Amino acid sequence: MEKVQSKTSFAKRPSQIINLEKGKIPPQAIDLEEVVLGAMMIDKKGVDEVIDILNPDVFYKEAHQHIFEAIHTLFVNSEPVDLLTVSSQLKRSLTLEQAGGEFYLIQLTQKVSSSAHIEFHARIILQKFIQRSLIKISNEIIEESYDEATDVFDLLDTAESKLYDITQGNIKRSSETAQDLVIQAKKRIEEIANQEGLSGVPSGFELVDKLTSGWQPSDLIIIAARPGMGKTALTLSMARNMAVQHNIPVAFFSCEMSSVQLITRLISSETGLSSEKLRTGNLEKHEWEQLNVKVKGLEKAPLFIDDTPSLSIFDLRAKARRLASQHGIKMIMIDYLQLMTAGGNKNGGNREQEISTISRNLKALAKELNIPVIALSQLSRAVETRGGSKRPLLSDLRESGAIEQDADIVSFIYRPEYYKIEEWDDEENSPTDGQAEFIVAKHRNGGLDEIRLRFLGHLGKFENLETFPFTNEIASSMNAAANDDTFKTPNFPSAEDAFGSSMNDDLSPEGEDEVPF
């Protein structure tokens, strides 16, 4: 008698949650549930077609949830799926009685003769489940909206998050078994092997990608530096490498510069024309042709720039979810963290607590969308007052230690040239002209390193340092040619090959090695 009462109360519980008005029956398709389960038990083809579409939660009837769970377990274990094996699996999991017993399983197989149209039927079952989920979420939002103590911005964020989950067809489960996770991990390892060891989003910098295997999904990456070190230039270079070279959709949120200023920087980087020339429009005829030709790749790139000032974490999450849903973005970049706000009614909190809230939510966003998030950050003035090489440390992160705690990777940009340091502190005492160091100071899933990059200040661009010797060789030959009378003859190369003629205008007065390519 007790079993009957407990079962009855369990069956009534969902209706109490999802019914908005008394007397309304939740959307359901029990007859199709019976047909789909029966077809799966008599035809292996039916299992293959719908096993990745459905999950136990989409079935309205509790007995059907147990039956599908048994079928899924058999499928994962590569065991045959039929009436007898499903019955045995239900016995092993002690859920045969909740599934209706062996007689009910026999009835299900008698309701259908083949697996024809099983995928169509499964889609209808899934639609009914989505309808029930929407009703449940709407009911929860209504109840919370009547609660005066509820923060309206938190309510909006929660509502949008739940709706996003439904849109993605990814209603969250409380947990996953180790078996499912091992299968996912094995598939991922196979994919990595096919991609020659690069499992994440490539940055375009060879040594950085070698250290990180690409920026990994769900990781929060902090890139910190003092003003003038080239934080924006580095992230724009990465965004360009991802969107233009690899056609990877990237979202760039700029709280500091306008979208037009950012795209102008990218045009400068792409064409080799200095930002000053692009700002003034003082271009030669061949430079106009160079601009029109080389900017075409940038025009087609899946790069989305948002320059909303004082962006709140709530707005960021809403925009990011929308971009992920509509454009399938694989990377989010934020310039920069200290210009964001926590939003909502965060009374009584100081700036350090606000930054902690922002960094914590950025990590949550990376996990929710399963994509890497790169956030730029300012360093404190302690770097300037320190003697020696003035290399930044983790303790220099400004305003909050939570940034270091929440981030999977913390890195710094260091340019000795900025501090008038002309030689690196290495054994060779190599020159620092046009070079920067990308310092990985924290790496949760890998090693640490100090990677040198090529910095082209007049183009606002970073490159691999491997091109450095080749670049110097070109610069030397171009300058030698510039001193020759033949350089000025009418036989000079056409506009497409006019790299040398425009190069002297772009050379900085401090050195001849700052060239765009």
Automatic annotation (TrEMBL):
<dbReference type="GO" id="GO:0003677">
    <property type="term" value="F:DNA binding"/>
</dbReference>
<dbReference type="InterPro" id="IPR036185">
    <property type="entry name" value="DNA_heli_DnaB-like_N_sf"/>
</dbReference>
<dbReference type="Pfam" id="PF03796">
    <property type="entry name" value="DnaB_C"/>
</dbReference>
<dbReference type="InterPro" id="IPR003593">
    <property type="entry name" value="AAA+_ATPase"/>
</dbReference>
<dbReference type="InterPro" id="IPR016136">
    <property type="entry name" value="DNA_helicase_N/primase_C"/>
</dbReference>
<dbReference type="GO" id="GO:0005829">
    <property type="term" value="C:cytosol"/>
</dbReference>
<dbReference type="GO" id="GO:0043139">
    <property type="term" value="F:5'-3' DNA helicase activity"/>
</dbReference>
<dbReference type="InterPro" id="IPR007692">
    <property type="entry name" value="DNA_helicase_DnaB"/>
</dbReference>
<keyword id="KW-0067">ATP-binding</keyword>
<comment type="similarity">
    <text>Belongs to the helicase family. DnaB subfamily.</text>
</comment>
<keyword id="KW-0547">Nucleotide-binding</keyword>
<protein>
    <recommendedName>
        <fullName>Replicative DNA helicase</fullName>
        <ecNumber>5.6.2.3</ecNumber>
    </recommendedName>
</protein>
<comment type="function">
    <text>The main replicative DNA helicase, it participates in initiation and elongation during chromosome replication. Travels ahead of the DNA replisome, separating dsDNA into templates for DNA synthesis. A processive ATP-dependent 5'-3' DNA helicase it has DNA-dependent ATPase activity.</text>
</comment>
<keyword id="KW-0235">DNA replication</keyword>
<keyword id="KW-0413">Isomerase</keyword>
<feature type="domain" description="SF4 helicase">
    <location>
        <begin position="194"/>
        <end position="469"/>
    </location>
</feature>
<dbReference type="InterPro" id="IPR027417">
    <property type="entry name" value="P-loop_NTPase"/>
</dbReference>
<keyword id="KW-0347">Helicase</keyword>
<dbReference type="Pfam" id="PF00772">
    <property type="entry name" value="DnaB"/>
</dbReference>
<dbReference type="GO" id="GO:1990077">
    <property type="term" value="C:primosome complex"/>
</dbReference>
<dbReference type="GO" id="GO:0016887">
    <property type="term" value="F:ATP hydrolysis activity"/>
</dbReference>
<dbReference type="InterPro" id="IPR007693">
    <property type="entry name" value="DNA_helicase_DnaB-like_N"/>
</dbReference>
<feature type="compositionally biased region" description="Acidic residues">
    <location>
        <begin position="507"/>
        <end position="517"/>
    </location>
</feature>
<dbReference type="GO" id="GO:0006269">
    <property type="term" value="P:DNA replication, synthesis of primer"/>
</dbReference>
<feature type="region of interest" description="Disordered">
    <location>
        <begin position="485"/>
        <end position="517"/>
    </location>
</feature>
<keyword id="KW-0378">Hydrolase</keyword>
<keyword id="KW-0238">DNA-binding</keyword>
<keyword id="KW-0639">Primosome</keyword>
<dbReference type="InterPro" id="IPR007694">
    <property type="entry name" value="DNA_helicase_DnaB-like_C"/>
</dbReference>
<dbReference type="GO" id="GO:0005524">
    <property type="term" value="F:ATP binding"/>
</dbReference>
